[in-house]
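Human: I hope this is not a bother. Would you mind checking the protein record under this note? Thank you for your patience.
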Amino acid sequence: DIADASEEELANHATGFTYEPGSTFKAFTVAAALEEGAVKPDTVFDLPPTIQVADREIEESHPRGQISLSVADILAQSSNVGAVKVGLATGAKKFDSWVRRFGFGEPTGIEFPGEEQGIVPGVDEYSGSTLGNMSIGQGLSVTPIQMAAAYSAIANGGVLRTPRLVTREGSERVEEPGGTRVIDERTAARIRGMLAGVLAPGGTAAEVMVPGYTLGGKTGTAEKAEDGGYSESDFVASFVGFAPAKYPKLLVAIVVDE
């Protein structure tokens, strides 16, 4: 009964749900660093169990000792400490520029009413720990359609396009939206290779497989913001994946609220 439905029940969550993306955002942290020449895929970082960024200590999702990982392995294994180090190597102003180039902080322009734009703080709003938080997908909010569009830019070779709802209206084909190149084609290919590592042995989604396909993607689990901090019991879990990994034709973004 639509008359009795709540505003939340009537919302299109693909375009209207805002959430902190968590580790799915690390692909853009790495993309920014690669484009700026701050790192290469095989750049190795020494990673302590935790890292202090201003007033916040950031730890891994699971306790571990001191290790060393390449940038590719940092993304595949979803190391928080590693992603923070990559983000810090890029720097606040450059990081902010790349986040916005990927379309975060503004609507995608998909033709559906009530699209939200998420929240991306400006550099002048950063506190001491902001860059560390944002490098691991916290301290900003996105929508599922923004994540799908931004990952599509990685999947298609570096071009960000406005998503469309339909490809054909009756007998008329809907023209494909123009796009803007946001990253180099080689960078996009490198990140696709790293995201294939997420689903390879040792990655965070190694148990996921589709026979006959090599997949790429990224997992994410974010604590929900509440009362000026973060919940220890309520999470948003998400996954963005594409196939085939080398020349993708299909991309799916899944978000589970609690």
Remarks:
- The first helix runs from residue 7 to 10.
- The radius of gyration is 18 Å.
- The chain has nine helices and eleven strands.
